[in-house]
Each structure stands twice: as structure tokens, then as C-alpha cells.
Amino acid sequence: MPGTESAREIMACAAERTVRFEQQTGEKPCLATVLVGDDPASATYVRMKRNRCAKLGIESRHVPLPASTTTEALVAAITELADDPAVHGILLQHPVPGHIDERAAFDAIPVGKDVDGVGSSSFAAMAFGRDGFASCTPAGIMRLLDAYGVDPSGKHAVVIGRSPILGKPMAMLLLARDATVTVCHSKTGDLPSIVRTADIVVAAVGKPEFVRGEWLKPGAVVVDAGYNEGNVGDVAFDEAGTRAQLLTPVPGGVGPMTIALLMEQTVEAAFRQAGLP
């Protein structure tokens, strides 16, 4: 279940809307990326997102901050971007150094510019079906399921992981589509038995090849949202491939969809802020 083709279609549409926005306003949609510290993986992710912006005609503004940045200084930098009408979307690259209150920083991003869907208000809007932006990876997974004709309604979905930017919003989006959702985590007892009951499995635990093939119900749809060193996901791919009906690869599965949704939501934010349909 690769995500590259679906992501390409989403980004082609975003590129067309970017042209329309510039024609109507004389400006380009703008995504501001904030990176605290010099973690190589985080720097790579930010560079990928900025390169994708450039290909789609979206302006990008990068704000690098030293690892010694305090929570207060980070919130101040985000607030400055929030107050700038030329900036339509703000992305704070996760994770930040441990001494920073990441939740306070995420929540400093106003809902209308939270194109990565990481703030508490964005989560609430998504959970209650209100107007806001969903967390990009879970939203990308839902679009990928749609692309492959997987209807969650009436299905049992097991989400492994409860992070506030992946596991929890993933559960809410599946619930909104009438799935029966079980959220599992590090303290869940007899996890393999629970996974064996799942029609849809979303692995977002951050441990390489954690989900084994023998855990899966034959014919299950398996979404690997993990990415670990060495291009390895959270699912033992070869084992799972013998039992799953559909299985996302790592890389090339969920990752392209995450970036595509970020681009789409940035362009949508620009239209909303300009008061354009």
C-alpha cells in the first residue's frame, strides 16, 4: 500500500491552488519552519519540507534556534510568526530539546496557522468535528485508506501508540469514521492477542519491527507509521506481508502522505486567511 501516488495527486492539487492564490492575491502561501537545535534527523526533515515547498511554489521561511533556547524564547519566536500576516502556516519540528515545554510551544501556534495539527485546540477541533487542521500523519493515513478503498466503518481498528500528535489523533479520526477503536500502549497486557482481533492495525510505537507477522489476523490492513534507523518501520514487513491484505512500506508509505497533507493544509490556511473560497 504505497503512498507515493496518492501523495503526488494531493501535491499536484496543492500546486494548482498555489498558482490560483498568487493570481488572486499577488502573494504566495508561506510556511514557516522552526527548528530548535541541530539534530541531524530533524534538520533533514525540515530540509525535505522546504524543498517540497519550493517545488510546489510555496514560500518557506526558516527559523533556526540554538539548542539552548528556552521555552519562553521559543514561544516568543512562534508568537512573532503568528502575528505576521505574510506567514500562513507554522511548523515546529518535533522533537525539541528536553528542557523545553513542547506542549506550551505547540499551543502557541494559533489554530488558523497550525497546519501540522499539533496544538491542543487543533486536537479538540478535530475530535469534535469542528473547523481546524488535523495532525498531518493521521490525516494522511486516513486519505491513504480512502485511496485503497478501505472503509473503517464497522471495523475494529487497533492503534499501537498514544502520542498526542499521532496515536491519539489517529484514534479520533478512525472513531469519526465509525470504526471501533482500541488504543494500545507500553502498559497494555497481552498486546498480541488484541492485535489479532484487528481489521485495521496502525503501528506508531517507535520500535523497529515491534509488530510481528504472527500477531496479525489474516487479511488485516496494516499501516506502519513508524520510522527507525536504517529505514525500518515498526512492523516486521516480510512477516506481515504473508498475512496482511494491505501493508504500507517504510519508506514510501505513510511518509509521503504526511508531507503532502502539510502542503495541502498550508495552502488551505492561506486561502482561509485571505477570505477566499
Describe the structure.
The protein folds into two domains: 4-114 and 256-273, 3-Layer(aba) Sandwich (Rossmann fold), CATH 3.40.50.10860; 136-251, NAD(P)-binding Rossmann-like Domain (Rossmann fold, 3-Layer(aba) Sandwich), CATH 3.40.50.720. It contains ten helices and eight strands. The chain has helices spanning 4-25, 40-56, 71-82, 102-107, 120-127, 136-147, 167-176, 191-195, 237-241, 254-273; strands at 30-36, 59-65, 89-92, 156-160, 180-184, 200-203, 221-224, 246-247. Strands 5-4-6-7-8 form a five-stranded parallel beta sheet. A three-stranded parallel beta sheet has the order 2-1-3, sandwiched between helices. The longest helix has 22 residues, at 4-25. InterPro entries: Aminoacid_DH-like_N_sf, NAD(P)-bd_dom_sf, THF_DH/CycHdrlase, THF_DH/CycHdrlase_cat_dom, THF_DH/CycHdrlase_CS, THF_DH/CycHdrlase_NAD-bd_dom.
